[in-house]
From TrEMBL:
Example GO biological process: DNA restriction-modification system
Name assigned to this protein: Type I restriction modification DNA specificity domain-containing protein
GO molecular function list: DNA binding
Keywords: DNA-binding, Restriction system
InterPro entries membership: Restrct_endonuc_typeI_TRD_sf
UniProt xrefs under Gene3D superfamilies: DNA methylase specificity domains (3.90.220.20)
Length: 60
């Protein structure tokens, strides 16, 4: 088994690691909100399309 000691492991300072994690958490929460908004928009679009088709068929 080869030794890993020749490799240098560079990590940012602990405070910077915490800042990075906080930013990733913030961005993940934004992604969740965007996904929810997109799902809501799709649902609204489907209801609108169904209503338009129903109205068109009733008018005919």
């Amino acid at each position: 088994m080869k030794s890993l000691t020749p490799f240098v492991h560079l990590l940012p300072p602990l405070a910077e690691q915490h800042r990075i994690v906080a930013k990733v958490d913030e961005l993940m929460a934004l992604c969740d909100r965007l996904k929810a908004g997109l799902a809501e928009s799709r649902t609204r679009q489907e209801r609108l399309a169904a209503t338009l088709i129903e109205s068109a068929l009733q008018a005919a």
